[in-house]
Amino acid sequence: MEDNKRHLQLLLDACRQGNRSGQKKLYRLFYGYAISIALRYGENRAEAEEILNESFLKIFTKLNQYDDAYAFKTWLRKIVVNTAIDYHRKYKKLDVYPVAEHVDITDGENNEGWNKLLYEDVLAHVQQLPPRYRLVFNLYVLEGFKHHEIAEQLNISVGTSKSNYAKARKILQNKINQTPLAKRYRDGR
């Protein structure tokens, strides 16, 4: 474990000095982790790659702002998430979906199929959500943001954040419940 920390510290020092070889190694080392985050926010792999590359550009240019006292992965994750938000603001021209009246945002609905589905299947369904729903869903579910934080980040109301989350969740549940795996699970096969 200590060797891994030392190796990472050496890579970060090399990157801070603008060493291209060090940057390439850091990119390769964290590519899998970073792309897994970017894929949740991108509509497809190409879009996720754009988010990823913009993220690493920020990482390399702002590495002097990183505090070694904290976990690098946490800092990297924050950069990728914020880059995804910026990407959506810049390129997606996100539509604001108004607050729906009487939207049920409670958990506990029929979640059959969720636990049995493969990650890639769920990811494919998340990527098909409208951009605003996808963004709110990911920030709330995967990043643990509160609705007031999402509202502040996206310049929307808290009610709109809650509504968009509820709609995204409903769309995902419907799509997932229609998958063959979910149907087999419900039928007990």
Describe the 3D structure.
With 189 residues, the chain is mainly α. It has two domains: 2-92, Rna Polymerase Sigma Factor, Chain: A, CATH 1.10.1740.10; 119-187, Arc Repressor Mutant, subunit A. It is built from nine helices and no strands. It has helices at residues 2-16, 20-41, 45-61, 72-92, 119-127, 131-142, 147-154, 158-177, 180-187. The model is unreliable at 94-115 (pLDDT under 50).
* Count of discrete alpha- or pi-helical segments spanning 4 or more residues: 9
Proportion of strand residues: under 5%
Number of strands: 0
**CA-CA gap between termini:** 44 Å
Please summarize the sheet with the most strands.
none
What oligomerization state is this entry in?
Answer: single chain
Helix content: 55-70%
The number of distinct structural domains comes to 2
Structural class, judged by helices and strands? mainly alpha
- The CATH C-level name of the largest domain is Mainly Alpha
Indicate the mean pLDDT: 83
CATH architecture of the largest domain: Orthogonal Bundle
* Radius of gyration based on Cα positions: 19 Å
Q: Which series of helices and strands comes N to C?
A: HHHHHHHHH
CATH topology of the largest domain: Rna Polymerase Sigma Factor, Chain: A
Would you identify the regions where 5 or more consecutive residues have pLDDT less than 50?
94-115
Write the CATH homologous superfamily of the largest domain.
RNA polymerase sigma factor, region 2, helix turn helix motif
Query: Tell me, what's the shape?
Result: globular
